[in-house]
């Protein structure tokens, strides 16, 4: 199968939904391609059971109105459960090969979102240790609690809704640990007040958690996880940290789930394959470079590629919605004035930048690693394997380490450990960008390749 | 309800449930044993990114349980190696 659309939007989260809506309203036939079974992305992941969905989301009405509008729009065709395995530019057209055939366009909007950033620590590969996003997606998408005694840890504003959701749906949140300082907020207060609604949402979570006797502990982190005889998580070691995140003292806590996350990493795989200009910020986070209309930079003038949402810098759903709207209108060449939208984007961008200052990841996490700590989960490469390659072969950059150890070359293609290796090897920005290459975007069977006539 | 088996044990779930959600809600945590060290793994990212939740579905290995929807009669097994 081969389908052409005037505009193709990749990703059914807040940015992609709004981009599709605005481009369609401006008169274009839009194909919206999404990997999920239901629209909404990670942010508005839902079960389709109204009452439950309302109970796990902060503001589900906004999402459900937008999803309904997209589904009801005759100019938008939604392709769900569609995974892209290759994205390329052929004869002045973008060609996306998927499990549901090829999709072709000259106007593409990328809104591929982000996933949790993980840091390695001893035992992080034990069943029961997972990302906050995993705990959240099972709750929001299926109403399933991942465990009974849960520790939520790491850094960032996302820990709050996750802990609140788990606790209010019956799990006992036995620990809520924020590695940054309790005064971090105060130091950036003025900038943070640019988005009072978000600040209030955060306070709301803290109050709800306090009502359930869950207090956030600052400057603490899980630095080791321990398994029971059957191999599942049974307890964690928690450390009090200094300002560099080096361990000052530790205590143990028993739990069956540890949900640990350190902010987010944008999913830049498709952007990279299409040759878009990428950038790296001070925290090592890679994003797509866009102009004031959300248009990405790439050499082919016959093609217009835009990007919106987390892909252009981690900034949350409100910012993603505005960027999606701008991208949708701009790609359609709409005459509508974008001034108000751009003003709102500017305000939300400043808020997002302030948030990254509140939750920096300090380099002391490297001191939590032991020789046998797994670094690459797919290929089972330990910290000592990396150190050996470093010493014996005098390997000084991430690429050489990768070739020597196979670290980052497993099924996830470095999505989980790529950023960690770059941190461990002190990679340059350019090295970080080239490490974002994922030759195969999603796994594919030979049967699917044959069907496409590529064999 | 949709019926499937995991390691030969019958499990019934609501339509639209992912294999990972079905297993977790029935107290089954371990989805695979790793290739080299045979250590158990389970869901990690929950959204199809990490490939740690792999299971064997109807004889096909390397299926991500977190993004695979349960279908009637499915035969799901712990994956050994990758
Ligand atoms: S849990 Fe990561 S791919 Fe399924």
Total count of domains of chain A: 3
Annotation field: number of helices of chain B: 1
What ranges of chain A have pLDDT less than 50 throughout 5 or more consecutive residues? none
Bound molecules: FE2/S2 (inorganic) cluster
CA(first)-CA(last) distance of chain A = 16 Å
Largest interface: A-B, 36 and 33 residues
CATH superfamily of chain B: 2Fe-2S iron-sulphur cluster binding domain, sarcosine oxidase, alpha subunit, N-terminal domain
Termini gap of chain B: 31 Å
Radius of gyration of chain B (Å): 12 Å
Q: Helical stretch count of chain A?
A: 16
- Unreliable spans of chain B: none
Name the overall outline of chain B: globular
Overall residue-averaged pLDDT value of chain B: 96
What is the rounded Rg of chain A?
A: 22 Å
Second rung of CATH, namely the architecture of the largest domain in chain A:
3-Layer(bba) Sandwich
Can you say what the CATH homologous superfamily of the largest domain in chain A is? FAD/NAD(P)-binding domain
What's the count of strands of chain B? 7
- Overall body shape of chain A: globular
Structural summary, described in words:
- The complex is a heterodimer of chains A (455) and B (82).
- Chain A is α/β, with parallel strands linked by helices and 455 residues long.
- Chain A folds into 3 domains: 2-115 and 265-336, FAD/NAD(P)-binding domain (3-Layer(bba) Sandwich), CATH 3.50.50; 118-262, FAD/NAD(P)-binding domain (3-Layer(bba) Sandwich), CATH 3.50.50.60; 369-434, BFD-like [2Fe-2S]-binding domain (Arc Repressor Mutant, subunit A, Orthogonal Bundle), CATH 1.10.10.1100.
- Helix content of chain A is 34%, strand content 24%.
- Chain A has helices spanning 14-25, 50-56, 60-72, 132-142, 159-168, 184-187, 189-192, 196-211, 269-273, 317-331, 339-358, 383-392, 398-405, 418-424, 429-434, 446-451, and strands at residues 2-4, 7-10, 30-33, 76-79, 84-90, 93-98, 101-105, 107-110, 114-116, 129-130, 149-155, 172-178, 216-218, 220-227, 233-241, 247-254, 257-262, 264-266, 278-280, 286-288, 304-307, 374-376, 381-382.
- Chain A starts with a strand and ends with a helix.
- Chain B has a single domain, classed as 2Fe-2S iron-sulphur cluster binding domain, sarcosine oxidase, alpha subunit, N-terminal domain (Ubiquitin-like (UB roll), Roll), CATH 3.10.20.
- Chain B has 1 helix and 7 strands.
- Chain B is globular.
- The mean pLDDT of chain B is 96.
- Chains A and B meet through strand 10 and helix 4 of A and helix 1 and strand 4 of B.
- FE2/S2 (inorganic) cluster binds next to loops of chain B.
